[in-house]
Amino acid sequence: MEKIQIAVLGLGTVGSGVKNILQEKKELLKERIFQKTGLEREIEIKKILIRDINKVYDVDKELLTEDFEDILNDDDIKIVVELIGGNQPATDYMIKAMKANKNVITANKLVIAKSNGLLEKVAKENDVRFMYEASVAGTVPVIKVINDSLVGNSISKISGIVNGTTNYILSKMTNENKSFEEALKSAQDLGFAESDPSSDIDGDDSLYKIAILSKLAFSTEIDLEKISKQGIRHITKTDIENAKNSNKRIKFLAQAEKKEGKVVISVSPVEIDSKHPLANVEGAMNAVCISCDNAGEIMLQGAGAGSRPTASAVVSDIFSVASKL
Amino acid sequence: MEKIQIAVLGLGTVGSGVKNILQEKKELLKERIFQKTGLEREIEIKKILIRDINKVYDVDKELLTEDFEDILNDDDIKIVVELIGGNQPATDYMIKAMKANKNVITANKLVIAKSNGLLEKVAKENDVRFMYEASVAGTVPVIKVINDSLVGNSISKISGIVNGTTNYILSKMTNENKSFEEALKSAQDLGFAESDPSSDIDGDDSLYKIAILSKLAFSTEIDLEKISKQGIRHITKTDIENAKNSNKRIKFLAQAEKKEGKVVISVSPVEIDSKHPLANVEGAMNAVCISCDNAGEIMLQGAGAGSRPTASAVVSDIFSVASKL
Asked: Given the DSSP bridges, would you call strands B2-9 and B77-82 parallel, antiparallel or unpaired?
């Protein structure tokens, strides 16, 4: 049995999810790799990078390290899964890993959206794979669908609910007649919103995600500073009521559209018809509609966040790389 | 520039769609293969099998042949795309192609559902690929999602609207208060239903599709004869009204569920809550919900039939094979 050895950077919400799924589904993944490739392979975590080795983790101590060099210098490690988040040291680690001939998988939307194709370039130069399905809309396999399933199409528009926190807040306001502040409080109490919720409710999180999808669909780099962006802080009970009275719903949409050769991106609350497929996406769910010339309109919906849903998307990338090494 | 040469069997609705997309997107596909693999490759149709060479086709005559042996004996052809449909000669052609070391792609749900894993077995024995995304739910990338995106999950249930004709009829009955007969007539006038619509409205078509999904999700062969199946002929205006009055919708669902270790499959009209994601899938659209342990519930929606939508799914399989040869 050949072992595909991987390292996981970070053991937070998503990192623990990845560790758990890889443990619990070890046999299933082995079978699936065999079915797909005819090869006897199993995926094994060899190292996990954590910040404080003295903290108590539910993991074999042997696996843990505080030193990224331990991972970088280990030639048996073929895949590095970056789940620290944030700009640095995540970016440095990913670049170093690629230069050391390791494939990289990440869920780090910020780095991908802001790095202007740098990571893709380094991956290409070093002939390694760089995958990031989990960076947009959690379990919703939107990146694979754009890259593979819709490959014979020209995409004209992508429109999505890609932030669960704001969709939860708007759903709560719509279905339970709550004010923005009440709905935000409820999201915070349930752990759907952070104590500083600005990245979600002011639209930065959605902006990073639509920038990533737009780059894939339209093959253009995007200047994040130039994108029109409006959050949901100002939405009132009256706005919600007025929309309902005209059979509409207010949804926080991230959109990218090709118009006369130019890609126009926006992030803002939009009134959509209550029959529109995105109108009925409730709570913390995410959904993306993709319009294209041959396949018509496709909609994908699923959990946008959470330990296991996000980890499920990371594991699909690990499987994909492990099947092709 | 390396050419990946393919043969297309059949030049009907889907076959013409595939030919058109491959012509129109030649450059795009070349770019995408290069992006994905770094290889300079283009996909080229070398032969098209048709029944009557004297019929007028909108294709270079040089490409056409009435004789499958021309394709079988051409070692340059690496991919055979079977779009004749029906059991024979489609099955023979696919098996012969695989034995001649050619990869096979098909949209033939009947053969896959009824052949009890034979084609997969022959593909494995001959170390070629066998792909069939277009066989279930047209553009909806449900096979890729089960095989790849949800690989780190145990699936518990699949529930889908996988037949556009019956969904069109039920939508028409629900939204326009038509009788079954009136709605069927309208579907036939628009070309959504065939003059003999029994395979759609009695559920055989849905049965083949859920059998395929079930086999992929639960790794079990299915005895089609044993599946409980009920069509929609008996649905009355009163049934539709009663459902609406209790905030429900009647949808024709194909379902497969794992219960106590056993897989239970059914095809029947079901009353579902009007808030259920499948309740709002209208007209000839298809949609599939997949419930699993880590990713939670995922829904995929798109055009279930038609020349270009179905061909778009076939082209994604061609791309996938062409990227890996």
From this structure: parallel
